[in-house]
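Thread: quick sanity check before group meeting

JM: Hey all, I'm pulling together slides for Thursday and realized we never actually wrote out the predicted structure for the chain we discussed last week. Dropping the sequence here so it's in one place. If anyone has concerns about the input, flag it before I start.
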Amino acid sequence: MSKCDFGLIGLAVMGKNLVLNIESRGYSVAVFNRTVAKVDNFMAGRAKGKNIVGCHSIEELVAKLKRPRKVMLMVKAGPAVDTFIDMLIPHLKEGDIIIDGGNTHFPDTIRRTKYVEGKGLLYIGTGVSGGEEGALLGPSLMPGGSPKAWDFVKDIFQAVAAKAPDGSPCAEWVGNGGAGHFVKMVHNGIEYGDMQMICEAYLIMDRVLGMQPQEMSVVFREWNKGELNSYLIEITADILAKTDDKTGKPMVDVILDRAGQKGTGKWTSIAALDLGIPAQTIAEAVFARTMSALKEERITASKKIKGPDVKFEGNKEEFLEKIRQALYASKICSYAQGFQLMRAADEEYKFNLDYGTIALLWRAGCIIRAQFLDGIKRAFEKDNELSNLLLDDYFIDVIDRTQSAWRKVVAKAVELGIPIPAFSSALAYYDSYRTERLPANLLQAQRDYFGAHTYERIDAPYGKFFHTQWIS
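JM (edit): ok, ran it. Output follows.
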């Protein structure tokens, strides 16, 4: 039998779906799983009759692959990846390629790339976005690592990837070392922000306008026809229209308000802190999930701590339009923070990122896919050195026409005691970024007063520091 084009280790749902996707594009795939019964079950089930070869050992898998061998790991991020890398290396030859398709933290990918390259092999750490459905039908792929590896996997990656509306594949080389997993991490951080902002729009509709989920569904479906068009808006409309079979109530009303998370939003926030980038909207989305986890405390607090006793008085339709505009303006700021973070990481880690290409990768297949990304692509096509999306003419115009509504929505929510951490932090980010003189001058004076930390002066060059003897 002829040798296979591709190997994959890890037959959980994502792994199996990706194998079926690759095979459906005309490639032969060899598969292995540490629990070999999963290999047999897969071969007897969904893989039956397909150009897929089941293997019962690493040695057998490697032996069945064409050179340069391409072996993808779809295993749990962490020590398992290192274990399989060490199991594979003795059986591979110079130029063979190991690919990690898990949700790996980017420092691990930087480390593993150096380690694998030191063995004469090539390494790819790739973000895979789109969940189980994306893996089967077409994910967004964000590969980075050893640049020489890309030519050998490009055709396969681009064949299985989702296709943007113009037909271009959502798979392109992202950059060196841990670039692929860093970009996927930021994608997930932006996803956290997007989801939280949509939830805040829902909360305002509920608490301020007294709307029912079915009514909201109609609104979100309408919003999805315009500039907010996106996968997350689309599924929100579907969710709000769903009825619980057991109780007959709207499904969203029977779901406990306690959110989970897998850590990528936290990683994004930590990276922003490490690199000195203000990504407060993404961080607030993470904190909103941690606040939701304090369910029992919130129940107690709700009975003891009172907020304002004020009701909304105004035109419902006009305020709905203001919410839409506030959501769009906040979304722009969240993405601006994400791209600002990637620029800082590029400088720190020498990833060699292309920001327009990254926007292209997110236009289909992934969770944050949206019409809005075309504007980001155009912004970086005009200026790949653009320091912040808020400085692009298109986004300047959008904020100019939406910020009045945005401010009114935030002010009204605050007045009525509605928690909107993402909307309000996005507005604070915008106002801070456009402010020439922030109160950090006083903050520096305080630091110098109690700790002799020094300060810079407005009448001296940057980088020259002074100290004042505050107490005479």
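AS: nice. The mean pLDDT is 96. The beta strands are 6-9, 29-32, 52-54, 70-73, 97-100, 122-129, 140-145, 175-176.
JM: adding both to the slides.
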